[in-house]
Amino acid sequence: MPRTRFVADLHLDAARPEILGQFRAFLDATPGDVEALYVLGDLFEHWVGDDAPSDGLELVLDALRRLTRRTPVYVQPGNRDFLLGQGFEARTGCRLLPDAVVMDLYGVSTLLLHGDTLCTDDVRYQRYRRVVRHRLVTGLVRRLPLGLRLRLARGMRRTSHRELARKPSSIMDVNQDAVLQALQRHGVRRLIHGHTHRPGIHRVETAGGPAERFVLGDWYAHGSMLECRPGRCELLQLDPAGLPAGPLSAS
Ligand code: MN
Q1: Given a cut of 90, is residue 78 above it in pLDDT?
Q2: Phi and psi based region of residue 242 (left: phi greater than 0; alpha: psi -120 to 50; beta: remaining)
Q3: Domains annotated on the chain, with CATH
Q4: Which of 8, 28, 114, 216 qualifies as a FRET site for 45, CA 20 to 30 Å off?
Q5: Whole-prediction pTM
């Protein structure tokens, strides 16, 4: 039976070699009946440009290249790796997706988002996002010398850690109105996203009837994915060999 897989928030970084290994194993173990793998943002902990040295990530990039020779891999930008570009596509064979995508998932129109745009209670973050993700700003940043981009990225990570520490956890989750608006704007009854690191399956009541929201897990303690087949989607935990090891216990 055909199936489609979704992952997000891997935050791949040379500092966490066990997760790099698990993700490589997961890619290589992709069965032939998987029609596509979607990465819904934050594949990498940081990505300052396709020209930066990919220190420690070469084996992962190679594994992506191996998989894309037989299965399409689509990558949405996250808040950490929105500078992924054509160089990354050429290196891995992955195809980059826009911020919001509606796909036909076995007969159900499904909206794919990283998820940060749904966290509208975090007003400071949304303001920051509007600036750094502005087309003119990203265009300018891409042209900065690499050394300067690396310094900027370090500064942004420090700010983000400081912000995380001082924000109440409620404002880090999605805002229900933002979810309803996104479903309505795109005319869909199903949404898949990551970013919040709060995996789960939620029923949403909309004016047009019931809808569902699937939240992907992060890859900090272990890998996980959402696997969809005609008529059913499941959140699954992965073992160290990158193979499904039962349902993901929701946080
Ligand atoms: Mn994120």
Answers
A1: yes
A2: left
A3: 3-247 (3.60.21.10)
A4: 28
A5: 0.94
